[in-house]
């Protein structure tokens, strides 16, 4: 397989934690994939995404992004990935436009090129007329849209999204999903966590189901449904996870 992300035997135990939040994960994700990470609260999705983005370091194990590791190639890897975190990374008192100028410049974009990209995405996501309002006056859905733009301005080849549609209204969700489809069509590899099973079923070609830090099912939604003799991903998810799924106590 032409793996753009290669995860080999990753374990992560946080300081002062008594258990592994990610445990023995081995996974290859191919270039151009739309890959979904699904799991209940506390399963380890954010931890795994944070490891892949180089925001935290594994306790043991190896992560290769486009064949490179973070120890030697952090700067190069970070130029090529986009990260859309669950928590807003935006400055509340700055306008959407000012926030995006700041994020774009962090990736070395400037001048006309940066402004063109900001204008394009603000327009695409229906925020053009709100561009100069402060973020603190935005609804949750509008903030999510700006948060997404901040992660894609530099045209990354891999995009990591941690629940990009959580807490947003239907309109915002549809626009966000539409943009993700568009990016995928252009060849961006997308790694995405979500609690919305319908959304994951619609978007993701491959889905990893994770609980208590371990991946215990992997496949397309069709494969997961076939394995569980169910007719939708929600039923497959419940059949696979059962009633015993609990967060770490
Ligand atoms: N900084 C930390 N220090 C100690 N434990 C942590 C830390 N961050 C997360 N954990 C623990 O690691 C486990 C996995 O958490 P994580 O946030 O990765 O799960 P998640 O699947 O993203 O959950 P959610 O769906 O609620 O966002 C949980 O038990 C959590 O309490």
TrEMBL record:
Keyword tags: ATP-binding, Nodulation, Nucleotide-binding, Transport
Keyword Nucleotide-binding recorded: yes
Keyword set includes Transmembrane: no
Sequence ranges assigned to domain ABC transporter in this UniProt record: 5-237
InterPro entries (UniProt xref): AAA+_ATPase (IPR003593), ABC_transporter-like_ATP-bd (IPR003439), ABC_transporter-like_CS (IPR017871), ABC_transporter_ATP-binding (IPR050763), P-loop_NTPase (IPR027417)
One Pfam match: ABC_tran
GO terms of molecular function: ATP binding; ATP hydrolysis activity
SUPFAM superfamilies: P-loop containing nucleoside triphosphate hydrolases (SSF52540)
Gene3D superfamilies given in the database record: P-loop containing nucleotide triphosphate hydrolases (3.40.50.300)
PROSITE patterns per the UniProt record, alphabetical: ABC_TRANSPORTER_1, ABC_TRANSPORTER_2
Superkingdom of the source species: Bacteria
Annotated family: Belongs to the ABC transporter superfamily.
Name recorded for this polypeptide: ABC-2 type transport system ATP-binding protein
Organism: Myroides guanonis
């Amino acid at each position: 397989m032409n793996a753009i992300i290669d995860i080999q035997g990753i374990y992560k135990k946080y300081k002062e934690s008594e258990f592994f939040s990610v445990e023995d994960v081995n996974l290859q994700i191919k270039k151009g994939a739309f890959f979904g990470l699904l799991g209940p609260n506390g399963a380890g999705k954010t931890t795994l995404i944070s490891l892949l983005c180089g925001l935290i370091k594994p306790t043991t194990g190896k992560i290769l992004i486009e064949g490179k590791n973070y120890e030697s190639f952090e700067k190069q890897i970070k130029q090529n990935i986009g990260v859309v975190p669950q928590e807003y990374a935006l400055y509340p008192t700055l306008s959407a436009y000012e926030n995006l100028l700041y994020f774009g410049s962090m990736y070395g974009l400037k001048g006309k090129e940066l402004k063109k990209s900001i204008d394009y995405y603000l327009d695409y996501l229906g925020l053009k007329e709100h561009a100069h309002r402060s973020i603190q006056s935005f609804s949750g859905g509008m903030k999510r849209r700006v948060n997404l733009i901040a992660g894609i301005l530099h045209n990354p080849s891999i995009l990591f999204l941690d629940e990009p549609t959580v807490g947003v209204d239907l309109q915002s969700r549809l626009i966000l999903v539409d943009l993700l489809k568009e990016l995928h069509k252009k060849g961006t590899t997308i790694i995405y966590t979500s609690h919305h099973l319908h959304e994951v079923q619609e978007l993701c070609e491959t889905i990893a189901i994770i609980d208590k830090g371990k991946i215990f099912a992997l496949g397309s939604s069709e494969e997961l449904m076939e394995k569980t003799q169910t007719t939708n991903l929600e039923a497959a998810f419940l059949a696979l996870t059962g009633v015993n799924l609990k967060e770490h106590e």
